Amino acid sequence: LKGLRVNGLIVTRGSDATLVIGPDVAFEVPTLPVVPVDTVGAGDAFAGCFTARMAAGETLREAVLAANCAGALTTLRVGAQQPIPDRDRVDQHREQLGG
């Protein structure tokens, strides 16, 4: 990471666990098991949810877990805007993953 001049990386890997790597941390965060219909907008939903959750003071793990759920739920319907889940729906699914 030092050679890249970044403080950390978050690597989403579709249905595989998301990798979180930083100077003092490295861990995986589970994803919500879904059968995707359309993946358009999943990365945007992840990024938006992650940013909002970090800004709200959640831990890195909590924010990534919520973002994983938001991204996964977005894939359940066709399109990029209509399927974006609200906070309550994301939290409901995050609890299923132990968050």
Work out the number of β strands. Answer: 3
- Per the CATH scheme, the topology name is UDP-N-acetylmuramoyl-L-alanine:D-glutamate ligase
First and last CA, distance = 28 Å
Model regions low in confidence, pLDDT < 50 over at least 5 residues: none
User: How confident overall, as mean pLDDT?
Assistant: 90
Describe the biggest sheet?
A: 3 strands, antiparallel
Strand order of the biggest β-sheet: 1-2-3
Q: What is the CATH-assigned architecture?
A: 3-Layer(aba) Sandwich
CATH class: Alpha Beta
- DSSP strand content: 15-25%
What series of H and E elements makes up the topology? Answer: EEEHHH
Number of domains: 1
Give the helix tally.
3
- Assign a percent range to the helix content: 25-40%
Q: What is the overall shape?
A: globular
Radius of gyration of CA atoms, rounded to a whole number:
13 Å
**What structural category characterises the helix and strand content?**
alpha+beta
Quick overview of this protein structure:
By secondary structure, the chain is α+β, with helices and mostly antiparallel strands.
Commentary on this structure:
By secondary structure, the chain is of the alpha+beta class. The chain has a single domain, classed as UDP-N-acetylmuramoyl-L-alanine:D-glutamate ligase. It is 39% helix and 15% strand. The protein has helices at 42-55, 60-74, 87-96, and strands at 9-13, 16-21, 26-29. It has a three-stranded antiparallel β-sheet with strand order 1-2-3, with helices on one face. A hairpin with a 4-residue loop joins strand 2 (16-21) and strand 3. The longest helix is centred in the C-terminal third of the chain and has 15 residues, at 60-74. The protein is globular. The model has no long low-confidence stretch (mean pLDDT 90).
